[in-house]
Write a structure and sequence with these properties.
The chain is mainly beta. The chain has 1 helix and 11 strands.
Amino acid sequence: MSQDEGRFVGGCLCGALRYEAKGAPTYAGFCYCGDCRKASGSGFIPFMGFEADAIAFSGQVRRFTSRAAHGGPSDRNFCAACGSLVFGGVLGESASFTVYAGSLDDASLFAPTMAIFDARRPAWVCKPEGIATFETMPPGDGA
């Protein structure tokens, strides 16, 4: 962890959208679903979950809503200035938020424990060892 144990700070490329989360993430991993691949422009999105009362955001966001694998909405938030993908959820409504680990100021704080939608992982994406792997969404609330 950082010098402030349990503190996760990050934001967008230009610095206009920022966040600070306190405490350990409720989950952390990689998602290989098609939506996450398209949103990130990569083979996956590394993610971490935080309860709403453990994270604070500052700056303007643009939100894009699409249909999630479970059929409900999936809300992704981008910086209104530079367009960087930063977090998932709806400000003022969601009980928890998913932070995209690439937005962390200190990337070494990301400690994945799972990989989801592994059935959709492109062959050119290396599969991490030592973490739980799920073909689709994990059972229960998961990510």
